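Checklist before submission:
- one chain only
- standard amino acids only
- sequence pasted in full

Submission:
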Amino acid sequence: MSKFLLVLPVLGLVAGCDTMEQQQLAGTVGGAAIGAVATPNDPSKGALIGGTVGLIAGTVIGHTATGQCLYQRPDGSQYVAAC
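Returned file contents:
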């Protein structure tokens, strides 16, 4: 559990992403960090799997069917605008 607490600052740094590349990077980094922490016997395998899943999630989350993106302001509120 204490290792998971080390991941939280990393996730906080990339939480306010506003471009597609930043969303993908945030998903990849977050997924790799969580995967590595969740698999203590083989952290490199967990990081690889977590990074892949995070990349997919970072790509999918934030897009709407109309080709617009969902953005988040520093105060936590969200809005939809062109990507």
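Reviewer check: DSSP finds three helices and two strands in the chain.
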